[in-house]
Amino acid sequence: MIRAVLFDLDGVLTDTSEYHFLAWKRLADELGIPFDRQDNEALRGVSRRESLLLLLKGRPATEEDMQAWMERKNRYYVEYISQMTPENLLPGALNLLQELRANGYKTAIVSSSKNTPLVLERLNLAHWIDAVVDGNAPARSKPAPDLFLLAAERLGVVPQECLVVEDAAAGIDAGHAAGMRTLGLGPRERVGHADMVLPDLNGVHLADLKPVLE
Ligand code: BG6
Ligand code: MG
């Protein structure tokens, strides 16, 4: 039986995945590296460093270059997210969090992003969340299971009692590696390997999740 629902943040509860894309695109343009939305699909859910390596596609770079480019991308990204308000929650997200809590489920945010605290503050979500595990934790990022396992530990539940909600292939892989059930949001080409797939959380109620909650 599921007792806790672990939500990814970027692309699940809020539309920051678009800001990540815009910030990487800006850096890629400045470096003269071709980069489009299709290239961006591979970056979804993976860490900042891994994203840069994917963007560079084998181009040579020193550690100093990498640090400078990651910092530059992050500066652009922080510019975008600093403008966010609770209006940037995706449709259905807050409602589902509230329904889960009202029905005794524990909730957590599990994100690879080091910017999670700032995004959560902008969204004013703290009240509906029991635990936050993010990219600042000393753990491997997704697709490793570490962040999800840490969240289960903090919530006092075992992995088999957790449902992971993710928009990224790497996130679904991480959930499965942790021994958890998974709900994938987005196209089947991306998250078709999840236990249940929905386009997004718009209009989704607890009852709709019955197949993965029982
Ligand atoms: C994930 C995003 O949540 O966090 C990725 O899906 C991003 O696109 C990763 O690269 C790391 O984020 P940040 O904010 O630490 O650069
Ligand atoms: Mg995501």
Explained architecture:
It is a single chain. This protein has two domains: 4-14 and 87-213, HAD superfamily/HAD-like (Rossmann fold), CATH 3.40.50; 17-81, Orthogonal Bundle (DNA polymerase, domain 1), CATH 1.10.150.240. Helices cover 44% and strands 12% of the residues. The protein contains ten helices and six strands. Strands 3-2-1-4-5-6 form a six-stranded parallel sheet. Helix 1 crosses helix 4 (63-81). The mean pLDDT is 97.
Gross CATH architecture of the largest domain: 3-Layer(aba) Sandwich
User: What's the total count of β strands?
Assistant: 6
Rg to the nearest angstrom? 17 Å
Structural class: alpha/beta
* Portion of residues within helices: 40-55%
State the order of secondary-structure elements, H for helix, E for strand.
Answer: EHHHHHEHEHEHEHEH
Bound molecules: 6-O-phosphono-beta-D-glucopyranose, magnesium ion
CATH topology of the largest domain: Rossmann fold
- The number of helical elements comes to 10
Average pLDDT confidence is 97
How much of the sequence is in beta strands? 5-15%
CATH superfamily placement of the largest domain: HAD superfamily/HAD-like
Shape by Cα distribution: globular
**What is the terminal separation in angstroms?**
5 Å
Active site: 8, 10
InterPro entries: B-phosphoglucomutase_hydrolase, Beta-PGM, Beta-PGM-like, HAD-like_sf, HAD-SF_hydro_IA, HAD_sf, PGP-like_dom2
Protein name: Beta-phosphoglucomutase
GO biological process, one term: carbohydrate metabolic process
